[in-house]
Amino acid sequence: MKCNQDPNLELSTSRKIIIFFIGTFESMLFGGAVFGWPQLVHVLKVEGLYSDLCGAPVTFNHPPFVPENQTLLSHQAFVPNNHTLQRNFILSTPFNTSRCNSFNRTYEISSSHAVGVEKCDPQDQRFALIYTVTICCYSIPGILVGYLLHHAGLRVTRISGGTMLSLGFLLLGIATKESPHWLFPAMILLALGGNQIRMSVMQFGDLFPAHRATAITLLSGMYAASAALFLIFQFTANMEIDRAHVCWFLAALSSLTVFLSFLMPVHHIPNKEQEAGGSNVSQNTQPLARSLWTASSMLHQLWFFVNLFAVNNYQQTYNVWITSSSCSVNEAGLYSMLFSYSNLITVFISPMGGAFTDYMVKKAGKTPNELDKRVKEVQASFWPLLVTTISTVAMYASILFYHPAAIYVSLIAMIVARPCIIAVSTAYVRIRFPGDHFNRLLGIYGTVTSVLLFLQYPHFMLAQKMYYIAHGLTLAILAISFMNPIHLLFTPLMRHAIAIRDEVSEDDLLALKTQNGEYRSPTRA
Known about the structure:
Layout: H1 13-30, H2 37-47, H3 97-102, H4 121-139, H5 142-151, H6 154-174, H7 183-202, H8 212-225, H9 231-238, H10 243-260, H11 272-276, H12 289-292, H13 295-325, H14 329-364, H15 370-379, H16 382-397, H17 404-432, H18 438-452, H19 456-465, H20 467-480, H21 483-487, H22 491-502, H23 506-511
Transmembrane segments: 17-37, 128-150, 156-175, 213-233, 245-264, 338-361, 382-401, 407-429, 441-460, 466-490
GO molecular function: transmembrane transporter activity
InterPro entries: MFS, MFS_trans_sf, SLC43A3
């Protein structure tokens, strides 16, 4: 499709600020709302969606009390003599009954099943399946979105994403205990629309070239904060406001994305540095395969998948984990709310990796020769990638322990890991590969990762039977992903990669001196 945007388009400073603010706001609200699944599924369980899978309800005059030294047994519940229990009710044993008994706490069983310390495997499996499909739909079309941005442009992509978000919230409002099947298409549309919005705002980092890494990590990291959006359902439920009414409001709010798209350039954000030729942009368009089939690209694809797989497994397991670690409905609800509050804090964490990368890139500008300078620019992503990986390992390892302390540790680690996986990855791709490949590479990495994320559901099923073995395998693969940041330290490898990327011989770059930290266009080999 031919670009119909004025090639000499220039944006005023005020328009740049407005566009960047809009992108930040949209990413913070809708870019990754589906990742707030642990909060949403808690609300849906309280409402009783798919509770019919758990068998017949329990009839109590008041919540049952488990005396000291008395524990709940698998598939049965302790009930005082003056209460009745239908025998086909499915209830599994809490893992942490010893802690609860030591506090002489009351085990609560809700009328909708599987809330608090209850466990209903069929219900958990259905929610796990919905979340797996949702996450896969989030980025599987990423390659199509990348090409849509590249060919159809910014405005078309944003209008498409905003429309899907609005429809998704409308269907989420329709989903009820009597009609839970609407939850599937609702989550799929929210995933598709949210990813289109997230990928659309990525190029807004080109509005401020001197601070590109900071801008990109801020924009991409904001999507992590959007996971707290579903917290609104728990607050409104306490205020006795119908979830459907909240969904109508969110549908109207997300529809603003369509109208705000007309404030944006038609096709893309003008990038004068790319047009003039920069240190990481070739004047001649290179084939995408030259970037895609490099060692850096392969290692980054592995790193991106494994870390996202770990985060999504953590989020998918979170509700079951806190259920097994809690002694009451209120305690489980507290951990659910803390998950959303933690996602709000990620707003302040995501820009740090970009700010550090920008600092290292600026510091690299003082390097005497051009080749070493460009190598150090790429190596600027080493520490952000390493810290992100360590945080992901700490977060995921915590679910091996059924204790409140482990929950708090995991949330602290998640505050760093969750926003930085996307944010740091995006900044790294923008620095490491030619700018012309940026949108398409993001789309390909996202699509490949999402296809592989279908493994989440069989992993969840395996974890129900062999909990520690399933999660131990994920930790082992996470250890392998450390190769991605570590390979950046091999300077000879990076020198060769830079020469190929920029289509310049290493000797020509070594002979080229920098002047005041400014880029100089080398002679093509």
